[in-house]
Amino acid sequence: MGNITTSNAATNCTIDHTIHQTLAPVVYVLVLAVGFPANCLSLYYGYLQIKAKNELGVYLCNLTVADLLYICSLPFWLQYVLQHDNWLHGDLSCKICGILLYENIYISVGFLCCISIDRYLAVAHPFRFHQFRTVKAAAGVSVGIWAKELLAGVIFLMHTEVMEDKDQHLVCFEHYPIQPWQRKINYYRFSVGFLFPICLLFFSYWGILRAVRRSHGTQKTRKDQIQRLVLSTMVIFLACFLPYHVLLLVRSLWEDSCEFAKEIFNTYHFSLLLTSFNCVADPVLYCFVSENTHRDLARLRASCLGFLTCSGLRGAKEAFPLSSPEALGKNEARREEPELLTKLHPPCPLSSSPGPGGTSQEG
């Protein structure tokens, strides 16, 4: 098994890990197949925002990088569960993958909170707090979030995370019942990593909804679209993170025996699997619901079509009706968005094209 430091005394708590061999592989494969390409597109969208000097792009890119790092650890976890919870890659790799798994939750929560506060300031206070809504300020906040979570993850490096069970399998991040040092960090996770950010997020989105309702210059259909975006964000946030943190607190408070660990094991690990869907939900919420993003992605597709056409694939033109003048005209008509929706999803810069007089101008 390599140079693996394991506990000589196998744990006396024997738990049925069937959920790891049945449900976990399905979730991991789904998140890999959908989350990786979706987050790559999200990274492109965030790059366009940064190019436009928009601070939202900084948060989007950091959120996407955190999701991609977690997604890159999924093949290791997939192999682990398919091997019947037998870790084959050493203690250090177990710690790194575990940190990517658990800290991604709080890095994601942090940047979702930053995005909500940024959108609240843009909609409710568009002429104030400019010093907090700059690319430089967003970069500073992002460094602080990464530093805080990475420092919190150091505690896992101080403990052995690979242990040998009664079947001589090397289990990774499996401690039953919960250990005393884990209780302390779990209280920190729940209060600082989840409860405080979600209070800020609720306050921010309540302010956004109130500003939308007070706006008289926005069409009703646009107001409905903004409210659906805000409410769907809250629902997905709660669905992905609330069950896990409730059960995390329950374990920390009352798990002091193997019997209790057995009773809560499946429910707890199901809630942990739910957090993985955040990697799929993030790009959908903050990129693909915006008409601006639809237009940018349509133009990206049109550029790819142009490349294929120049390469001799003439038949591809009929397969993409968006390239027709009528479709492009309808697409251009979507530019007229109300002020509030534009603030929620600032338009991205289009690729440079020769303007009048041969100079390059942004679309």
Automatic annotation (TrEMBL):
Annotated spans, Disordered: 327-363
* Family designation: Belongs to the G-protein coupled receptor 1 family.
Q: Which PROSITE patterns match?
A: G_PROTEIN_RECEP_F1_1 (PS00237), G_PROTEIN_RECEP_F1_2 (PS50262)
Query: Which regions span the lipid bilayer?
Result: 26-47, 59-78, 98-117, 137-158, 187-208, 229-250, 270-289
Record bears the keyword Oxidoreductase: no
Protein topology in the membrane: Multi-pass membrane protein
Principal location class: membrane
Amino-acid biosynthesis among the record's keywords?
A: no
The G-protein coupled receptors family 1 profile domain is annotated at: 38-286
* Gene Ontology BP terms: adenylate cyclase-activating G protein-coupled receptor signaling pathway; cellular response to acidic pH; insulin secretion; monocyte differentiation; negative regulation of monocyte differentiation; osteoclast development; phospholipase C-activating G protein-coupled receptor signaling pathway; positive regulation of insulin secretion involved in cellular response to glucose stimulus
Name of the molecule in the record: G protein-coupled receptor 68
List GO terms (cellular component aspect): plasma membrane
Pfam families on file: 7tm_1
Q: Identify the coding gene.
A: GPR68
List the InterPro entries.
Answer: GPCR_Rhodpsn, GPCR_Rhodpsn_7TM, OGR1_rcpt
